[in-house]
TrEMBL record:
<keyword id="KW-0343">GTPase activation</keyword>
<dbReference type="GO" id="GO:0042254">
    <property type="term" value="P:ribosome biogenesis"/>
</dbReference>
<dbReference type="GO" id="GO:0005096">
    <property type="term" value="F:GTPase activator activity"/>
</dbReference>
<feature type="compositionally biased region" description="Basic and acidic residues">
    <location>
        <begin position="18"/>
        <end position="35"/>
    </location>
</feature>
<feature type="compositionally biased region" description="Basic and acidic residues">
    <location>
        <begin position="53"/>
        <end position="66"/>
    </location>
</feature>
<dbReference type="InterPro" id="IPR007336">
    <property type="entry name" value="YihI"/>
</dbReference>
<keyword id="KW-0690">Ribosome biogenesis</keyword>
<comment type="subunit">
    <text>Interacts with Der.</text>
</comment>
<comment type="similarity">
    <text>Belongs to the YihI family.</text>
</comment>
<feature type="region of interest" description="Disordered">
    <location>
        <begin position="1"/>
        <end position="69"/>
    </location>
</feature>
<dbReference type="Pfam" id="PF04220">
    <property type="entry name" value="YihI"/>
</dbReference>
<protein>
    <recommendedName>
        <fullName>Der GTPase-activating protein YihI</fullName>
    </recommendedName>
</protein>
<comment type="function">
    <text>A GTPase-activating protein (GAP) that modifies Der/EngA GTPase function. May play a role in ribosome biogenesis.</text>
</comment>
Amino acid sequence: MTRKKKTRSAGTNGQRHLSAEDIRKTRQPKEETKKKGAGLKSGSRNSMLAKTPEAKRESAPKDKRLGSKKPIALLAQTEAVQSAQIAVVEPKASLAKAKPQPLSPQQELALIENDSQLQALLERVERDEILTGKDAKYFNAKIARMEQLMAELGLSDDDADADPLAAFESKDWRKDILGDED
C-alpha cells in the first residue's frame, strides 16, 4: 500500500467555509421593535418654568418643589395670645374614687365574729400560746374593735352591767354617808 501525505484542508467531506457575504444572506433579519423609554425627557423640569405665568396658573400641574404659602410668624407670640388661641377643654364629668359604704355596728360585729383568722387566733390563745408579730397586732386590733362595738350596742359582757344589784351591794355606802373609817 502506498502512503498518502496528510493535508490540512478538510477535503470534500468536511465543513465548507462560507464567506461573510454568504453568511449575511443566510441570516434572518431582526424584527424591528420600539425602543423602551428610560425615563422623562431631559429638561422636563425646566420646560415648565419656561411657560408664561398665565398658563402656569390655569393648566400646569403644581411644582412639588415649591413650599407652603402659609405665613410663618418671625417673632415669638406672647403667652396671652397663645392662651387665647388654645381652648381649654374641661371634662363634662368628674371622676372620683368609689367609697365603700360604712357598715352598721351590727354588720361590722357580725363580720368580726365570723372572721376565720380571728377564730384560729382565739383557739391558739385558749391553748395558752403566745402570739407574736402580725398575729398579735391583728388579734389585739380586732378584739379592741369588737369591745367598742359591743359597748356601743350595749352588749358588753361585764359583770357589773349584767347584775346591777350586785354592784350596789358590793359598795360600802356607810363610808360615804358617815365618813367613818371603821
